[in-house]
Design brief:
With 272 residues, the chain is an alpha/beta fold. The protein has a single domain, classed as TIM Barrel, CATH 3.20.20. The chain has helices at residues 33-42, 57-61, 85-95, 118-133, 146-154, 170-178, 195-203, 233-243, 248-263, and strands spanning 17-22, 45-51, 69-73, 101-110, 138-143, 161-163, 182-185, 209-211. Strands 1-2-3-4-5-6-7-8 form an eight-stranded parallel beta sheet. α3 packs parallel to α4 (118-133). The model is unreliable at 1-5 (pLDDT under 50). It comes from Candidatus Cytomitobacter indipagum. Keywords: Hydrolase, Metal-binding. A divalent metal cation 1 binds at residues 21, 23, 106, 214.
Amino acid sequence: MICSMNFVNKTIDPIKWIDSHCHLDYEPMSNDIEKVFQNMKTHQVVGAMSISTTIGTLDKTYSYLRDNLWFAVGVHPLDERIEDIQEIESYLSEWIGRKNVVSIGECGLDGFKGSNLKKQFAGFDIQLAYAHKHKLPLVLHMRDAEDDAIAMIKKYDGIKGIAHCYTGSMEFAKKVLDLGWMISFSGIITFKNANQVREIAQFVPLDRILIETDAPYLAPAPHRGKSNEPAFVSYVGKYIAQLKNIDEAEFAQITGNNFCKLMNVKCESFDG
């Protein structure tokens, strides 16, 4: 796939947001997917990447295929089949190479509330290996396992990726940036108690930042507590643009470019 630089223009209107991380197979979005796409148009969201978390996820969401809808194939660290390496390999092999399947994930490590990290290592490692072999970026889920995640990623020289829905430390953010990776921020950044997330968003360079919804979770203000959807990435983008004191249209252009470049995709206006 060739990355189109449609976002690089002297005239940066109209605004074009891209949601780098959502889960279109989850309810309530999956109950009325055409409404989801229409709401994206209304909020000037021109594309999205739907993320797999378990084996079989893409069987449903791939039926939504259109030019500016992309997919990541992977298995979440807390999925019950994370130790079944044969099934994970079969799942990855089935989908890698298909149109608009551009990334590996959501995968990684999660030590939250005493989760057993050791049983997650092999599942994460095989997904890292596939990302490295096929030269695909990886969508990282990381919680309470920063040192282990960095050590495993470093085994695969040159692998690129996204630290998604970032809520980690400043120290880990610097390590992620040192890897050459992107950092993505969700609606959490609009929450009143997210001061550290806002500090890190201000720190991350413009050429390394992405925005996301993680829909249907983590709806940003003013929709907090409600079901999230890709259209609401516009609120995240506008909030961070103001935080970084940059024009909204320019920030949309920058984050769109970052996504296109990392995923090596052609980005055009969402066709609904």
